[in-house]
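Below is a concrete protein record.
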Amino acid sequence: MDDDFELEILDLEDNPNRSRVRKRSNGHAVNNAHHEGKKADGSGRKEPGENEKWDGTHWENVELRERVVEGWAARVVGIAASQSTPKVKDPAKGRVLTSKPTIVQSFGDFMKEPPPSKKPPGRPSSIYEHLNNLFNFSKELETERRIIANDPEHNAQYNYAKNYIKTSKYTFFNFVPYNLFEQFQRLANFYFLCLLVLQLIPVISSLTPVTTAVPLIGVLMVTATKDAYDDYQRHRSDNQVNKRKSHVLRKGQLKEEIWSKVEVGDVIRMENNQFVAADILLISTSEPNGLCYIETSELDGETNLKCKQCLPETENLGHDDSSIGSFRGEIRCEPPNNQLNKFDGVLNFEGKQLSLDNDKILLRGCILRNTEWCYGVVVFAGKDTKLMMNSGKTKFKRTSIDRLLNFIILGIVFFLLSMCLFCTIACGIWESLTGQYFRVFLPWDSLIPPDPPGGPAVIALLVFFSYAIVLNTVVPISLYVSVEVIRLCQSFLINWDDAMYHHATKTHAKARTTTLNEELGQIEYIFSDKTGTLTQNLMAFNKCSIAGRSYGDIIDPRTGEYLEISESGTWVRKKSKRKSSKVDLPMMNCRGGAVGGFHSSVDETEVTLLSADASSDGDAWMELQSMHHNDRGSGHRGHPIKCQSFFRETNVKQSTCTLDKVMDDASDLEPDKDTSYTRPVDLSRNPFHEASFKFYDHGLVDALDGGDPECEAFFRLLALCHTVMPEESKGKLEYQAQSPDEGALVSAARNFGFVFKSRTPNSITIFAKGVQEVYELLCILDFNNVRKRMSVILKKDGKIRLYCKGADSIVYERLKDGQDSLKYHTQEHLDRFAGEGLRTLCLAYKDLDEDYFLDWKGRHHEAAISLERREEKLDEIYEEIEKNLILLGATAIEDKLQDGVPQTIANLAVAGIKIWVLTGDKQETAINIGYSCQLLTDDMLDIFIIDAQNASDVEDQLRKYREEIRNVAATNQPQTNLSVVTFSDEGVGQDNLSEAGESNGGFALVINGHSLVWALNPKLELLFLEVASQCRAVICCRVTPLQKAMVVDLVKRYKKAVTLAVGDGANDVSMIKTAHIGVGISGQEGLQAVLASDYSVAQFKFLERLLLVHGRWSYYRMCKFLRYFFYKNFAFTLCHFWFAFFVAFSAQTLFDPMFISVYNLFYTSMPVLALGIFEQDVNSKNSIKFPRLYTPGLQNALFNKREFFRSALHGFLTSCVLFFIPFGAYYNGMDQEGRSMADQQTFGSVVATILVIVVTMQMCLDTSYWTLFNHITIWGSLIFYLLLQYFYNFVIGGEYVGALSKAMGEPLFYFTSLLTIVVLMLPVMAWRFYWVDVRPNLSDKVRFKQRHDAKMASKRSEHDMLRTPSARRSRRSVRSGYAFAHQEGFGRLITSGKIMRPRNMKQGPISNGRATNLRPDNKISFVAPAAPSTVEV
C-alpha cells in the first residue's frame, strides 16, 4: 500500500510540473539558448547565432493529428526557420514568451552559456507554496532539456517526469467524482436524478422516492464496481511495469531499484535480453568499439537487430562503477517529442562539445540483444519517453448503441413531457369546467388559490410534475441495469470460450472491458499490424529452385496432389481444378529430381485439411480416394517426388496415363503405411543441424548425397554471401543476423551441410559437408534498397569468384546469355513461389580473372574518392562487375503466417469488413505479406503505390489513381454478389457465401510513411480517404505509431464507421486506444498492446470467432433485448395515460404502487436477461460458415430509430388493447352473485395480470434458442408474479389485498384474458409467419438449413457435411516475390573489423572489463556511411 501511494504521489507531482520551462542552475531560463537559421544543406539542424534566443511559449493542448504532421513534416523537409512571433516580456520572471507555441525545435550545436546568476532556484519553502506549484495550471512548453549525469540535485530543480507510468484512468481520490461524472453523461441517469429530486417534494409526488432512489443507486453502484474492477486491472499491469527491477548507480555503487524510481540523469546498467527502462544516452558497452544491438519490435514492429554505438570519448569508461559514477557530462538536447527516428543534442565532457544523434540513444521498450552489458544516462523518463508519447491517452469508449440510446431517451423524454403537457392542459380545463364545482367532495389543497382562474392553473402545474413521476417508467432505470448485466455475462462467455484457447501458450481470450461487446458485431474497418499479428516473427526456408529443378514440394504419390504440412502435423492438401483428365507423371532421374512435369492447365486451387494421422486411418484413406483431381502448374518440371514405390506397386510402365487409371490402380492399395513423403528429412548426421529446422523433400538430400554440383554450389553461395556474425553460446553455434531473411538462408545452408563457422575482416570459414574451407574475403558489395542485391568477392585456391543474391528482376538483367531454358524454368518456379506468398531471391555467380579484378579494384578506388558524381561513378563500377552472371537458382522463404490468417481475412472480407494493414516494415515486405495472407491477390486490376516525397506529387498520384478508379467504374457494369443458399442435396453443406468474398478485380493501395505525412494533411486527407475507401485492400508501410492512430482517426471522423485496431506491440498502443475497439495479441512483443486493449486473444485467427460469433451474437442479443424492453415498457406505461382520461387527469395510478416498483425489477426482468445472454439465431459453426450473417450489424439494421419506433408503436397498440378490452368487460361487470366488479383496484389488478401474461408470451415468440435458463425464467416469472402478489397483499397487507383473487374467481377474468391475448398475439404470429415463410432473410434461411442438417445428420457421414476451410490459395503469379528486410551498413562493419570480437586478446594494463577494440584511433568515432556501399579489403 505504501508503494502504491508513493507512485500515486509521484504521478500527481509530475502532471502539473513536467511541462514548465526548465531552468538552469544559474537561474537563467533555458529559452536563452542561442540558435540560428537553417543550414544551407537543408538538414534542419540549426547553428547557434549571437543575440538570438529560443522562444518559450505558453502551454496549449495540441491535437494528435497536428502534432504528428508537424513532427513528420520536420523530419521529411527539415525544420523550418523560426517564425517571428510577437514577444511579451514577463516582468516577474524576466523571460521572453511568445504568443503561440512553435514547432518543437531541432537542436544541434550550442554556444557558450550565459553568465550565471547568483542564486539557483530552490524547492518550495512552505506547504502552501508546494500546493500552489502543484495545482498551478499555467503550463509552459519545454524548449530545451539540460541534464548533468550523476547529479540528482541539479536535475531535480527542473521537475522532469519520473519513470512512473500510468495507463489507468482513476485514482483513489478522484474515482467517485470522475466516475459519477462519466455515468451522468448518460441522459437516463441524469434524468432519473432529476426525477428523484421531484419525488422528494410531497406536493407533486404520488409515488415514494424509494421507487427511484433504490434503482438509481443500484445502477450507479453496479457500473462503478465494474469500472473500478476494469481500472484495477490496469493498475495491476502498471504496477507490474513500474516495479520491474533495474540496476542504478547511486553514489558510485550499483543498487537495484524499481523502474518507477529511476530519474532523469541516473546512470543505469542493462544486461542482455533486458528491456530498456527509459530513453537513455549510451555511454559504454561490452562490445568492441562501443557497439550494442537492440531489437525495436515494440517501437516499429521490426524484428531485425539494429546497431547502436556510443561516443568513443565515453566508451573507455567500461563497466568500472567508480569511473562511471564520477562521470559528470552535461547533456543539452531537444525537449520530449514523439519522433522515434530523431534526436539532437550535445554532450559537454572534458571540455569538449560532442554531437549526439539518434544512433547513440536507446529508447524505452527496446530489448538489448547479443550484448553482455551496457551503461546509459537517462535522458527521458516515464511520460516523456518516446514510447509513452506515442501511446496516446486512455479514452472513455462508448458503443454506437449507447450513443443511439442517449438520442432515443432524449426523444422519449420529450414525448413524456408532451404527454405531461397534454395532461396538464386537460387537467386545467377539467378543473375550470367541472372540478371547481366539486370542491366539497374533492377539496383543493390549502396551497391552491381559491379563485377559479388561479386554482386550476396551479393544480394543472402540479399535475404536470405528478405525471412526470407517474409516467417515468417509459424510460426505465432498470434498462441500464439490465444492459450492464448482459454485457458482463457476455464478457464471461468470451472468456470461457474454449474455441479461442491457444494451447501452445495456454492463453484464453479475455474481455478486458465489459462495455463494448455489441460493438464487436458492427465492425466495418479493421486496422491490423503485420509483424507478430499476422506473422509469427519467424522465417523458414521453404522451397528452392536449383538448376531448373524445384525442391520443397510434397506430392502424394497415390494421387499426384500437393501437400503442405503445418507445424502441428496437419496435412493441407491442395486440390487442383482440372480441365483435362490426363497428367504427365514425372520421370525420376538418378538424383531424385524429376525431368518430367505435370501439364494440366489450372486456374486456381482448393485446399483440403486432413488430420496428422490420416495416413493410418481408413476413413482418411477413403477421403483420399474421393478427392482425385489433377495436379496444378504447367511446366513445373522437377518436383522431386518419390514415386518409385508407387510405380512398382501399381505396375505403371508408361510415363503418361490418365488420372482415372492412376486412381483406379491406387484404389487397390491399402492405406499407405509408408509416409516417408510426409516426414521431415533426417539431418541428424550433421553435427551442426538444428532440431527446429524442417524440410520434407527427400530429393534435395538425395541430390546432395549424390554430389550434385549445382546443389553444392547453391548452398555454398548461401553459406558465403551474407553479413551474418557467428557466436558460440553454451557450446552451440548461433548466428547474429541483421535481418531474419538472411538468418534463415544461412541456417538452411547450415542444416544441409554447408556450415558458416567463422569470419574475420579478411576471411570466411565454412564447413562444406564436413570439410573445412577457408575463403579470402576480397570485397563486399553491400545491400541497399536501390541495388536490391548484395555480392561478395572471394578467393580460394587462386580462383576469384563473385557470388550474388538479389531480387529476380535485378539479377535476371545481369545474367549471361545462353541460359534461356534455365531462366524459363526458374522463372516458372519464381512465379509459383510468389503466388504462394513466399519471399524469393535469385542466386548467381561469376568467375573473375585476377588481373581484371585488380584493374577493377583500382578503378573502384578512384570512383570512391571522387569528389564529383561519386554515386554515379560507383554505380557504373558495380554494373561492370555484376554482369554476365551464371544463374544458380532461387530461394523461397516463408515469413510464417500465424495459423488461419488467410482464412480469417477471407471470411472477414466476405462479411463486409475492410482490412487495412498498418506496419512499420518496408514496402516490399508488407506487399509480400499482403499476398501471403490473401489481402492482395494476382487478379486485382491494379495495385496503386504512393511513394512521393512532397505534397504536390502525393496529390498528383492520388488524383491519378482516383481517375483510374472512376474510369473502371464507368466502363464496368455493376456486379452483384449472389449470396444464395440452396437446399438441394448436392448443395447442402456448401458455403456459397464464402466464395463471394473472393471475387475478381478491385484495387489495392500501398502508401509509405513519408507520403502518408502529406496524405494526412487537412488539404489532402479527404482525397486520400476517397481513394483508399474504394480499394479492396490498403497497406500503409513505414508508419510511426502515431501515424497509425491518425489513419484510424481519419476513418472514424469521416466514414462514421466502427473501427477495430489489432496489434501485439507497444507500437500499436496508440491506434488501439484511438479505435472504437482495440484488440491485443498476446504474442512475442510483450504485453503493452494487451494492457491497452479492450479485448485480448492469443492468435489473429481468433479474431474471426470474436467478431463473427461473439460480436454478432452480442449485437443480435442486445438489439433484440432493447426492442423487447421498449415494447414492454410502452405497453406498461401508456396504460396510465389511457386511465387519465377517466380520472380527470388527476395523476391517479392504474396499478398498485408495489406493482409499478417491481414490474421491471422482478416480473419481467429475468426472461429478458436470459434473452440478452443466451439468445442466438444460428449456432457458432454456421455463424463462421456464412459470414454474410454479419452484414446486418454493418448496416445497423437490427436496432435503429426505425426499429425503435416500430417497437414503441407495438407497445402503444398493446397498451390500447390491454386497457380498453378489460375496461369494456369490467365497465358494467358483475360477479356471479350480482355484485359490481367495476372498481379501480379490481380493474388495475386484471390489467396488470394480463400485461404480465402478454409480455411473457411475446418473449416466447421472440426466443429462438431455448435453454434451461429460458424455461426457468419465462415460466418462473409467471409463477413468481402470482406468489409475490399473494405474499404482498395477504402477508404484508398491501392496498390491493384480495382484488386479484376476487377477479380470478370469476369466469369473466379468463374470457377477458383469453380475448386480449388472442387479439394481441394473432397479428404478431401472422406477421412473422409471412416474413419467415414468404420473404425470409439470410438468417431465416440458415436457421432452416440448420434444422435440415440436424434431421439429415443420421443419414450422412461426417465428412460429407463438414466444409474444409481454405488455407492458402496458390495461384500462378507474374509478380516478383522479392522482399528482403536487409539493410546496408553491416558489410562496412565486418570488413573494417570494428564488429569483430578478438579472440585470445591479452588484457591490457588498464582493464575496463572489455576486450580491447581493434580501432587504431579511439578518439575517432565510427559512423557507417550510407554510401559508398562497396567495401574494399
Remarks:
- The first strand starts at residue 56 and ends at 58.
- The mean pLDDT is 74.
